[in-house]
Amino acid sequence: MEIVTTGIDGVLLIKPVIHGDARGYFVETWQQERYEAAGITLPFVQDNHSRSTYGVLRGLHFQKTRPQGKLVSVSLGSVFDVAVDIRPDSPTFRHWYGVELTQENQWQLWIAPGLAHGFVVTSEIAHFHYKCTDYYCPGDEGAYRWDDPAFGIDWPVAHPVLSEKDRQAPLLCPA
After folding, report:
1. DSSP assignment of 82-122
2. Which H or E run includes 167?
3. Which is it for strands 18-21 and 11-15: parallel, antiparallel or unpaired?
4. Would residue 144 show up in a list of annotated catalytic residues for this protein?
5. E-only strand ranges, 6-77
6. Which of the two ends of the chain, N or C, has the fewest CB atoms closer than 10 A to its terminal CB?
7. How far, in Å, CA of 145 to CA of 156, rounded?
8. Residue 105: which residues within 8 A CB-CB, separation 6 or more?
9. Rounded to whole angstroms, how far apart are CA atoms 29 and 72?
10. For residue 131, what are the β-bridge partners?
11. Antiparallel, parallel or unpaired: β 141-143 and 108-111
12. DSSP string covering 110-158, please?
């Protein structure tokens, strides 16, 4: 596998080796020793799978006191996936990194605890997978608006489909 640094500490793009032939393909999506060698050493305690249609945007989400590290990937379709540095004392505070994760490229994005995360579906349908380093805690949820000018994310979908929670999410620096 190839590990690509992104310029944000704690965000790695992982390009696994795909073994394919006329029958299809095989890809190793998790192997503890290899991922530990890449610096992903926290244990995973929860796996999630979401299904969404074109234009659905989920994010920008985080947990306030029990931050989750996430290893995310797509098994069907494609998404534009984004990690945002919301750590005030980080040299890359408010910086974001985005990448298209697809069923064809089988790439993964590692998002360390303490960062915000979101994605928008760019295919007709997408199946999105998260390996998480802490449990989901509804009372600990945090979110920032997907279109927050403090981040300036260049989303590939102009008018995304949002949940009410994401529509009402606050700005990082309200006026």
Report:
1. EEEE--TTSTTTT-EEEEEEETTT--EEEE-TTEEEEEEE-
2. helix 164-167
3. unpaired
4. no
5. 11-15, 18-21, 24-27, 46-53, 57-63, 70-76
6. C
7. 16
8. 15
9. 10
10. 47, 71
11. unpaired
12. EE-TTEEEEEEE-SSEEEEEEEESS---GGGEEE--TT-TTT----S-S
Q: What is the dihedral of CA 121, 127, 130, 136, to 10 degrees?
A: 90
Q: Of 35, 61, 117, 144, which residue is the catalytic one?
A: 61
Q: Quick one: pLDDT at residue 174? A: 74
- Cα–Cα dist 79/74, whole Å: 7
Prediction pTM value: 0.95
Tell me the β-bridge partners of 25. 20
**Cα(45)–Cα(31) distance, integer angstroms:** 15
What the block records as the tokens of 11 is 């965000």
Instruction: Give me the residues of the chain with pLDDT under 50, please.
Output: none
Of these residues, 35, 97, 117, 130, which one is catalytic? Answer: 130
Q: Which two tokens stand for residue 172?
A: 């990082």
